[in-house]
Amino acid sequence: MSGTSAMVRDGARQAMAWLHGWTGLLFGHILFIMCLAGTLSVFKPEISRWMRPEVSGQADPVRAITAATDWLSANTTGSTGWYLAAPDGRSNVVEASYDSGGAYLSRALDPASGAPVARDTLGGEFFYRLHFELELPYPWGRLLASLAAMLMLVAIVTGVIAHKRFFKDIFTFRPAKGQRSWLDGHNALGVLSLPFHVMITFTGLLTLASLNMPWGMTAAYGDDLMALYSDLTPGAVTKAPTGTKATLAPIGPMLARAQRHFAGAPVSRVYIFNPGDSGAVVTVYPVETASIGYLPAEISFDGATGKVLKAWTEKRAGIRTYQTIYGLHMAHFAPLLTRWLYFLGGAMLTLAIASGMVLWIVKRRERAPLSIGNRLLERLNVGGLAGVPIGMAAFLVANRLLPLGLAARAQQEVSVALWSAGAALLLGLVLPPALGWPLLLGLLAALCALAAAMGPIWAGDVTVMAGNMLLTAMAVALALLVWKQLRRRSAPTPVRRRMAPA
Length: 502
What we know:
Elements: H1 3-41, H2 44-50, H3 61-75, E1 81-85, E2 94-100, E3 103-109, H4 125-133, H5 140-162, H6 179-192, H7 194-207, H8 209-212, H9 215-221, H10 225-232, H11 251-261, E4 267-273, E5 281-286, E6 297-302, E7 308-313, H12 317-330, H13 336-365, H14 372-401, H15 409-430, H16 433-453, H17 462-490
Antiparallel strand pairs: 1-2, 1-4, 2-3, 4-5, 5-6, 6-7
């Protein structure tokens, strides 16, 4: 290879490394929140189950949906729609969203009585929404998440190009070497699960395509959103309310008919439009474990008579491709082992982002004293990288400590999470990093241990027990990390000796 080619190659690699560093730096903390919340969302139903320990055991989806519709029929007024997610092997309640008396509500309904469960909580839904809405109002949270995902894809591609020893980095880690150790860790975390990182970032970006790439839809449909919706979901049945009251036909036979239409697959979601009106429509979807694609089929019934109005199985190649990409990101199809692989890949991506943020500071400190901007970033790293998980752990603790009858209890749990994360961020900014890291990580360990102890620790439900064990393991791991940090801090600083010139 000529010298000119080598210079061009090295110049391109340096440019990619520069772009990789700055894209990660500018949106690193937002990406850290998104990836950590997304990783936890892999086990969204299980987290929800841990946060509602009063409801245990498995539930029959047909009986649970029947109980839920009976309760909603008797306890809601003026509803325009009930959106129900049936229990399955992972969830044991009916997740319901509905309106009543002008208020829009989301509740977990007891599978036996159909009434809201005693412990009002968002459960795993909090982490799921945080992943792509960032607790910001629509559409700003989604737009910010979409922009961050775009830069994440740029960071991944530029990171690959900037690598000199792509495959060697998988097996290279040199501990206790300062910047070299952080770089080895960052590279290994990024390279080892690179295919997953590319897949999850690309598919995540496409799930928000209507926001980040709306031009095709706008060119074809303009402001006619109903025409767009009709073309995208030709199986959907829409009927205007007639104003004539009518009792909802028995839901059980409709669900049984739907299950036969889905070739035996259990029902997953049940949407009831215009309930209590003669124009009611019941639409049923199957579980998504039989295929990767999202919402592969649906069947609609006349809500007043129970007769089939329309059945639809999506077979259009373009739509199925999009549904498959969407389904790959959501992982509803995934069995337990695959879900753990998703979790591991997400955890590695989260740690790669965090290690990259720390590496930025370590790299510059070893070259020269830190500038004011980098000192601020160093403290922001302490508060952000430790504060976000502290807020999440506080969310779990609040779930156990807040009174069951507290008004707007679910929102109070979220408030505790946000205020805790904010307080940790402030502490990180105020305290010296050498003190801030062990203090905040120690606090995180204590919160994890407290949440596990209040699990309750004697829980009989396997999911609750598994959650307690994972929280305990996390607390022990963090405590060991803090102990190591404190031990290293108290150790005498080694004197660096320069070698005498030969």
